[in-house]
Each structure stands twice: as C-alpha cells, then as structure tokens.
Amino acid sequence: MPFDGLVLHKVLKEIKNNILGDRIKNIYQPIKSQVLIQFSQSFVLLSLISPSYVILLSQKPNVPIQPANFAQFLRKKTRNGRVVDVEQLGLDRIGYFEIESYDQETSAMREYKLFFELMGRNSNLILVNEDNKVEESLKRVYEEFRPIIPGVKYLPYYDDSQTNILEENIENIENIDYDRLMGFSKKSIAFLQEIGIQRAIKDLKKPYLFYFKEGNTYDFSAITPNNFKYEELKPSEALLKVFQERANQSRLLEIKRDLEKRVKSEIDRLEKTKEQILQDLNEEKNLKDLEKKGELLQAYLYKIKKGERYFTVNDWNTGEEVTIEIDPLLSPTQNLGKLYKNIKRTKSKVEYAKKRIKKVNNELEYFNQLFETISSAEDIETLIEIKEEMKDIGLLSENKKSKRERKVKTTFRKFNYKGFEILVGKNNKQNDELTRSAAQADIWLHTHEIPSSHTIIKSSGKEIPEEVIDYAARIAATFSKAKMSSNVAVDYTQRKNVWKPKGAKPGMWLYKNYETIIVEPFREVP
C-alpha cells in the first residue's frame, strides 16, 4: 500500500476542497501517534503509524476523553483558528495546513503552519510559527544536523532538486532518472513505465484514486494501474476501503491460523494413531510363524525337558529344522499355553487394528478435507461457517463469545463457461448442500483421492461438452490441496452416481461409474 507523494497530492486536494476557510472546532489524539482535527462538517486524521498517511473523514472515530499533551498544545494554539491554505511541498510526502488563529495572551492574530512529514518511522507533526520556528512537535528530535525542538528554525526534510513531473517539461520517459523522481513509490514507477509520462500527468490531475485488487490484496494508486481492473474512487473512499480490507484480511488470517492449528493438531493425533495401528497390523506377518511353532510344540511336547531354553524340532511339512525359544522356568505345558495365549492376543490385536484402520483413514480423510476448506477460505463468513461445523463435531467448544458470533450463510462460488453454470462449495456443509441439491444429470467433480471442494456443472437438460468438463475440472483442482501441482487427476460422474454413507461426516461422499481427467489448476481464480 504505497501512500506515496502522488497519493498525497490527490488526498490533499480533496481535503483542501472540504476544509479551506473552515474553522478548527477541536483536536484529539485517538492514540499517541495520531492527531484528529475536527471541522464543522468533517475530520482530518493524520497518522504516523507506518505506513503513515493523512485522510479526510466524514465521521468521528473513537477518541479518549482526556487529550494527550500534543493535542492539548494544538488546542491552545489553533482551536477556533481558520484554515487559510493546504499545501504539499512539490510531490513529496511533506505538506502543511496554514492556520490563522487568535492568540488570547497577546490579543493578536497569529499564523501557524502545521507541517506533516509522512516518512515511515521518521514521520512527524510540527507546529511552526510565522517566524518559521518550531512551537512544538509530536516527536522531538535532538539530532545535530536537523533538530526539531521548540524555538529552533524549522527546516523541512525536502529535496527540491528531485524531478517533479508536474513542474518540469518531460517529453520522453526514456530521459527520466527514476531514482530522482519526486513522490514515486516503486509500484508507481512500475505503472509509469507502462502508461508513459503524459498519461501519468493527466492521471495526477484527476480528483480520484484508482482502487484495484492484486492477487488477494486490495490497493490504490494515483496513476492508472495498468493490467489491473480498477474503480475510480474519491481518495478518502479508496483509502478507507483498503484499510477496511486490510483489517478484514488480518482478521481472516488470524482466524484461519487458529482453525488450521486446531485441525492440524487433530490430524497429527490421528497420524500417530494410524502409525501405531499399522505396527499392530504388521504383526499379522508373524502369526503364521507363531501358529506353526504352536503346532510343532504341541506335537513334540513330550520331548521337552524342563530347564531348556531352546527346543529344535523337524517341520514335517518342509523338512526344515525349526528352533523354538521357550521359558526354562516354565513346564512344557505352561510354555505351550503361553505361546497360544500370545497367538490369541496377536490375532485379537490384528483384528481390532483392521477395524480401526478404516475408521482412522476415514477420519484422516475428513480432517484433511476440513483443513483444505479452511486453507482455501477467502472471507470471514466462510470461516464462521467452518467454525460452526467444527463445533457440531465437537472439535471446538461453544462459549459465550462464540454464541454471540453472528450466524452467517454464504453462497457457493459461481462460474460460467460456454453458457453452463459451475458451482463450487466453500466448506463441507456447502459441499453437502451443493451435492444434495444437484439434479441427477448434473456432473459432479472431485480431485482423485485428494481433498477438494465439491464441484457441480448444471446440465439444465443439455449435454455437457468435454471442454466444459475440462474447465470445471481445472476449477475443482484450483480449489483443492493439489492447487500448486502441475497435473491433477479429477474424477467426474453424474450426480446420480454419488451418495453419502450413513453417519458420514460433513462433505464426505462416495461415488461410482466415474471417469478421470488430468488437468492443470488455474494459477489465478478465473
């Protein structure tokens, strides 16, 4: 989100059009690094949190009752003062509000400039008087080359030798030294190289920002973001939308991480259980050997002498000698009983393991599918639905906070190709609903033995062409655990061949009479 000098240029124009000639009603500090100036119909928020910015607001945000020191000082000097100018230094991220205010101590009009330097960690707000001396600053700076403390001459951190494209006549973009361009972020330079200097100058004269989406991230630009779809919005509107989207994205990632962590913990537990079951199943290999030794020991029991540790006999089936380890402290009969008890215990363990392995594999399949739905969720509403599913199966507990959480119902992902509607579930509950509601002749798709969303091609009584099936298969692969792979196997069949086993968890279905197609997932959702 580059709040560069170009964006500031447009933001200040909007602010100037709204507050010029207006009086300052009050000044607040929502937090230590922000100052909010209230006017008759609007507010201006100056934020020094990286990325630092200034924005016009129509509504008052939450502010503490007791103002901080800097806000109190600004109130004393500028409250009821009139804004006579709003300016930017060139195209840099520096500017000021010029304020004409009555000083009760001297009974005279005073002129102040509230400078804002939006320079990342070095951002600052400085109140300067008519003698160009610092009255006070949000952050005092004691550096020798440029101190910012009360009483010193104010020197803006501004390099006027840089190239300002609005003031210099630049015919050819090839003559530009990009490192010397004033107000351009790296992203703005990239757009400039695509659209050219003349288009950029025209764009800067327009009163709006370009609001666009790059991947899953929303952003804004003062010049045309070539190769992106964009909206033209008022600067304040574009900024607020991006801030809100970023806040939502942060919350989305936080919820996603928490849910993924909980499901991953369950997957790890099941993987350990599966490993133990496989070890138990592996003992089936020893059963034949144990049973043979039991037969031989029973047949030659009369030859065993108490106190022997090993007993060697001839196997009448193979003619080979077999050595059986026995307990010298036990009688021959006791040794035989111990061996048969071991055989019985091993058989029981293997039988139990065979029953459990199927259940554990089904559980693993479900939780891997659940993990994939969390991973591919694109909005908070979908994650809230997934949380409800996790509560239903007992993976998350219901508490007061979750009871108050807004219950939502999201819609399927929808695509259209060659006149056919393609629907994709966003979570397991949606997968169930989507598959249940599909017509018998609709085509149902799912990645082969890989967790993915259910995908349906609506037939609407028409024969579905192969190219539509191929496209839908690519979508199914895109919303699967194999989305980053090159060749993904996708199974497809008519909905009439798909059924849900009794007692199966959400999203878990079986299917038959299917065909498989190998496709490349989309790198970007179409």
From TrEMBL:
GO molecular function: ribosomal large subunit binding; tRNA binding
GO cellular component: RQC complex
Swiss-Prot/TrEMBL GO biological process terms: rescue of stalled ribosome
One Pfam entry name: NFACT_N
Coiled-coil annotated residue ranges, if any: 253-287
Keyword line: Coiled coil
Domain of life: Bacteria
Residues annotated as domain NFACT RNA-binding: 416-503
Protein name in the entry: NFACT RNA-binding domain-containing protein
Organism (species): Petrotoga sibirica DSM 13575
High-level lineage: Bacteria, Thermotogati, Thermotogota, Thermotogae, Petrotogales
